[in-house]
Structure prediction request, 453 residues.
Amino acid sequence: MQYIRGALDLEAELMELRQAIGAEKVSTIDQRPWREDSYTLHAPIRVTPTHEDDIVRLMLWASKHRLTITPQGGGTKDAMGEPHTPDVLLSMQHISGIVDYSPRDLTITVKAGTSIEQLQACLAEHGQYIPLDMPHAASSTIGGVFSANISGPRRAMYGSARDYLMAARVIYPDGRLLRVGAKVVKNVAGYDMNKLFIGAMGTLGVLTELTIRTRPISISSGMVLATASIDQLKQLQKLLIDSQLEPSICEWLYGSFEQPIGITSQQPTVAIGFDDVSSAVQYQLEEAQRLCRACGIAEQRTSSDKTQVQTLYTVLGQLLPNAQQLEGRSLIVEMKLLSSIMDVSKVFEAVQSLAAAREIALQFAGGLYTGVSRVIFEASWEQQTEWIELISDVQRYMDSIQGYGIVECAPLSIRQKAAVWGQSGQNDELMKDIKRTIDPHHLLNAGRFIGGM
Prediction:
């Protein structure tokens, strides 16, 4: 069992912080144990600011005393990244709310701690949304989604989080407040600084406010589920890519998925979804069915029920587990596997074989138009040694096809031993240089990102 520095060791420093931001915003837990089977983050000090100025003062205080800080939204991605031991957990849940919304301009400005559910509800009142299928909408925050650059199954048509951020307010580790980007759709003035913070896991600055591009909600949706042999589905992928169809999702699925999708076959299934006006959706559904028949696929299910299709999107978006809901369950590890689109079927066959050899169950969803696959492995805690070997073997295979294997969710005991971010890449040193320039004392999320950044 691992212990982190206790609050009693920082009594004088804490008194200074309470005077700066208010005693009610600072809580302490002395010598909190960090269990090795834990998926969640712990720190001896928890700060819950209510205003941007509180975060500025916190950063100045932490910089002065060389104390490390980890920002946290809803905590759904606590089990992502290298294990690290922060002195302060910075909760962003009270930095929330809609700042400005212009439905005619398709832009909205929100505070970073705003939940996805609250944001989407506000947009839905005006027939708009952000089509990222972000997981765990009730607890995930918009700041966390952009810090991790989350994308869902509809990335094929709509892109990832980085495609929607227009402007942001960011607080640097030394307390400086930056405004990056612009609240206009067309902006070509200089380097797009927004991109620097998207996917950086909060290691460069704390996002406090984001201006996001929105989209009108699709009028109609439809899907085709085709279950067949691996060879038939490979042939179907080639026909789909060569066609003029524009699916919003095209996912290679395997494993037990929740109702009402009802995918329980021992064979893989390809889910093809469309979002558009009714006539376009209907035409594309019929064309997708024709392509399935051309591959000899007899087992098909088609739906034009928008509610059912949206349920499919939601279920597939939940493949990234919620770290707050994993305590006390069997051992779960989720990996993100990046490959060329034509290698997705090979990735599936490889991970299925590696898991079967160890009698480890899996769920798999691979983007046939994106090359982004996610696999969830589940087994007993007694198989931890085999887990490390499985992760290494998967990453070794991904390296052999010039891909990447990243552990997105795992308990502390696994992340302590596995290469969470896979093999070092050629851009690691550049990223480390940026980190050293912005955060020379490594105060923000120290050690959590690639290469121990």
Summary: The domain at 323-422 is CATH 3.30.70.260 (Alpha-Beta Plaits). The mean pLDDT is 88. The chain is about 30% helix and 25% strand.
